[in-house]
Amino acid sequence: MISILSYNILDGGVGRETEIISTIKSxxxxxxxxxxxxxxxxxxxxxxxxxxxxxxxxxNSKRNLxxxxxxxxxxxxTHHPFPPIRRAFVEARFxxxxxxxxxxxxxxxxxxxxxxxxxxxxxxITIILRTIKCKISKKEPCLIAGDFNAIAPRDRVIKAAMPxxxxxxxxxxxxxxxxxxxxxxxxxxxSDCYRFINKKEDGFTLPTNNPNARxxxxxxxxxxxxxxxxxxxxxxxxxxxxxxxxxxxLTRFDFSxxxxxx
Length: 262
Known about the structure:
Blueprint: E1 2-8, H1 17-27, E2 31-37, H2 40-50, E3 53-57, E4 64-69, E5 73-79, E6 89-97, E7 100-108, H3 115-135, E8 142-147, H4 164-172, H5 180-187, E9 191-192, H6 193-197, E10 216-220, H7 222-225, E11 228-233, H8 240-243, E12 249-253
Parallel strand pairs: 1-2, 7-8
Antiparallel strand pairs: 1-12, 2-4, 3-4, 5-6, 6-7, 8-10, 9-10, 11-12
Helix pairs in contact: 3-5
C-alpha cells in the first residue's frame, strides 16, 4: 500500500510548522506534495522531521512546490513555462517495487473563480496534459495531484460562505461558477479519485474554519485508478484547522504487477 498526500500549507507555513508536521504525520504518507513552499530551508526542516527525502520545485513566484518521499524518487523535473504556467508543475517517477514505476505530476494552478482565471487554468492544464502525452505511454500508471483552484463538474460549493471578494466576482458573472478546466482532465481519460470513491460527499478542503469548496484533487489514469483503495480529506488531526487554510487530501493505492499487464 502506498499513500500520497497533497497539502497547500498557506504562505510558506510560517509560524505553523509544528501544526503542519503534526497534520502530515497523522496520515503517515509515503509521498507528500506541498504547495506554497517559500524557501528550501523550510522544506528541509519538514523533510527531516518526517524522515523523508525532498525536492524543492522552484517556479515563477515565491509560492513554490515541495516534494517529499520515503519511496525512491527515480526521476524529478520542474516545468514552469510562462505563459501559461503561473507557478510551476513537477514531473516525477517513483519506483514502488523493483523495476515498477508510476508517474506523478504535482500542480498548483491559477487562483480565483472568475471565467478569465478558469480559462487560464484550462491553458495550464492543456500544457500539463501535453507534457504527459509526450513523456509517458498510455499503459503506464499516472497521477496528477495538487491544488487546482478549480471546481469539478459534479461538485457544489456553498456560495454564501465564500469571502466577499469572491462573491463580487460571482456577482459580476451572474453567480455562475465555471467548471470547464477540470472537465478537460476528465475528458482525457483521468478519473477524479475522491469522486471515484465518494459519490455523494462534498469533500470540501477549504477554508478549514468553514469549508465551502473542494479545490484539491487527485486525478488518475485507468492504469492508476485500478489500484485506488482510498481517497479522503485528511482532517482527522485536531491541529489541522490551525495549520493552514486548506485541509490535505490523501490517497492510498494497492499496487499489483498484474494490474498493468494485458
